């Protein structure tokens, strides 16, 4: 829709509220709403002011005034709200310069798409993130000066097989069983999968917003781990859809009396939730990653792209797996892609080339290290910039590793480079290696500096300063 069509849509569909959404730097959707009577043609030209100093990663208090410019093409009837509400995604502008705001994640993705065209390598990139999450029945947590704990629970939790879940008419407790065992949630039918109907309702809501859905299923872990896969799309559009995805999942679960989390590792000793990202480059409607004579049907362009991903992987992790919790997932033994090599079909490699069919249009590669704590716009943009750097500098990724990397002898395993073991290490890598992100002005110095400062002070230091409950087990009696 264009602005005039938005106004007509509001009239024709009895819209009462218009909601403006935008992204903070870490990746959480922010919003505010106006009555539809306040929506006029001036908004599209002049924007709407807001306080940028109250948004994570944005402005200092002495330069807080910022502008939201609504993107009429994103206007969608919000499927989650009772009051008829039109949701519009906004771009962020600096009112002083009148230019797009450098720290607006959506703007960074826009610049990445524009930069791709200038390289001559391709004119379009396609993205298909596999987003995983947990659906719990309860979550409780607290941290203060003298207490620290968390507790999550699920009717599916394998630990609940002995719990008295119901009391019958005679006062006897009973349990209905059917709890997916640890690492065995992929993917039996109901009643083991108790979330089938809820996921179906979730994808129907997603489809109401125009998101094409390919598949949904239970994932490997016990206690309600799920996956819903969207059909591939271009970068900015996929970034928008990833925001809608999280919004709908969280709100649909809440309506059902449950709670969803995209934390990578909420459970100890079971699989974490990742975001395997399928990606390809196209030019004039032709997939630049396909070659019928190449390894796994990959072109030389695709091989160099992989070289860029692997070369810059340590720095990429600071953006693609950007939380301290991310590195509790990225450990050997839980199908986690810690090994920085590539392979056809091999899920123990960080870059996998799917081999489901030989159709040139389907040829793509899958980078398996990211997770859903990433800001979608920044994550997709950063991966593409690394891949383009690999193509431009002809970075050789080495030989593919088609064996099960988890079963290699220790002497062989030590030769394989792995992802950083902590957010702190990833941030150090990004500080040293970010020139590839600055190409074409896609990322800017201030974005990198603010990202490093925010992550170190608000997350790394915050965790480092707090005693951990397991430290009491280890050290209290020493």
TrEMBL record:
What the record notes about the co-factor is: Binds 2 Mg(2+) ions per subunit.
Where, in this chain's numbering, is Mg(2+) 1 bound?
130, 132, 276, 366
Q: Where in the cell is it found?
A: Cytoplasm
GO:BP terms for this protein? glutamine biosynthetic process; nitrogen utilization
Main localization category: cytoplasm
Q: Which reaction does it catalyse?
A: L-glutamate + NH4(+) + ATP = L-glutamine + ADP + phosphate + H(+)
Q: Cite the GO molecular-function annotations of the record.
A: ATP binding; glutamine synthetase activity; metal ion binding
User: Can you tell me which residues bind Mg(2+) 2?
Assistant: 219, 227
Which cofactor is essential here?
Mg(2+)
In short, the EC number is 6.3.1.2
Sorted UniProt keywords: ATP-binding, Cytoplasm, Ligase, Magnesium, Metal-binding, Nucleotide-binding, Phosphoprotein
Per UniProt, ATP binds at 214, 278-280, 347, 361
Tell me which residues bear O-AMP-tyrosine: 406
- Name listed for the protein in its UniProt record: Glutamine synthetase
From which organism does this entry originate?
Dehalogenimonas alkenigignens
